[in-house]
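ligand=5CA
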Amino acid sequence: MRAWSAPEVPVLPVTGPPVQVHDTATGGLVTTAPDGPARLYVCGITPYDATHMGHAATYVGFDLLNRAWRSAGHPVTYVQNVTDVDDPLLERADKVKVDWRALAERETELFRHDMEALRVLPPAHYVGAVESIPAVIDYIERLRRAGTVYQVDDDLYFSVTSDPAFGAVSRLERDEMVRLFAERGGDPERPGKKDPLDCVVWLAQRPGEPAWESPFGPGRPGWHIECTAIAQGHLGEQFDVQGGGSDLVFPHHEMSAGHAHLATGAPFAQVYAHAGMVAYDGEKMSKSRGNLVFVSHLRHSDVDPMAIRLVLLRHHYRSDWEWTDAELWDAVDTLARWRRALALGAGAPALPVVEGVLAALARDLDAPTAVRLVDEWVAATLGTAGLADTSDDSAAATVHQLLDAALGLSL
Ligand code: 5CA
Ligand code: ZN
């Protein structure tokens, strides 16, 4: 499907260092070493409601990775999916009496506008689950040939015990896996399964639900295999980073890695990177709980999207944090100060701040440190003492480019 439009990315006078990212599977930082274009897959939305700050934080977080790679001189191939058919979407469509396709289209379109406003670089391939059904069917055939799929009634399940590496992404205790599996769409108690953690790869048609023909009867894809098939279909069997929020570590990313090991015999992503959870009113912001702050509501209330982006940047992408309006108004004031400094033209030397910001971002996307360095440059530029000696005539132009290219802030 169509992605959203791409903002210009200025070319900086300095090349950034190699990019390090935290890997959930090893618990440490990994220096990414893309061979050719860097390949990034980030799990996309299930489009049954508007983009909230949790989604925005996750996509802005991975946008920093995309930008850090570009600053380091790597082109990036970015793929993102849209789960445009799945239980929560069908349930919501039923509840609000809207056709599920119309609901998915409407919310995906809103998401595109939100991403444009936040200056998130679009994926090269923005891919829906529905349009990927032939690829999913081929993938299930591969898993069947590998002997890792079995039937319960008319549904097909992936057998987790066929993968000796199962558990290597999340490194969780089995009890915790079972608990999370039940909480996040799994069915550990279904009779007839070989292992409670086995996940559906093909769900046979249910009354009143959409279905597509397949060699295994009419039905629709399971959630995890959707991402496995889309990622490998557009990035190749192996790629650099698999990303998403930390709520996807288990079962979603564990299952995708499991499918891929058994279909290809090779590792899936080099790094599994996860963004922290954004809370509101004391709990994880989630569509099912309804404690949401929508990007589009703020946009329609004339809030500067760059202030929203700055709030997100002030929290490290891996930390869990809580959205507050106070931080938004503080970001509005900060941007006003930054704009005043940029309007001066000359300012404190720009090169150290360019190097510092690129280094911070290359060290596990440390945007809070990058923002502090910009704050310091602004304070030095707005302060008068001692500037005359060291003033850099083109400082504002350079910092302007830096904010745009590395942090996605167009001021
Ligand atoms: N379609 C699936 C992924 S294939 C899905 O999880 N969709 S979603 O709409 O529920 O979430 C979209 C992305 O936002 C996912 O990467 C998810 O991990 C992330 N996300 C959801 N809620 C939050 C939150 N409160 N804070 C941070 N990220 C979140
Ligand atoms: Zn996914």
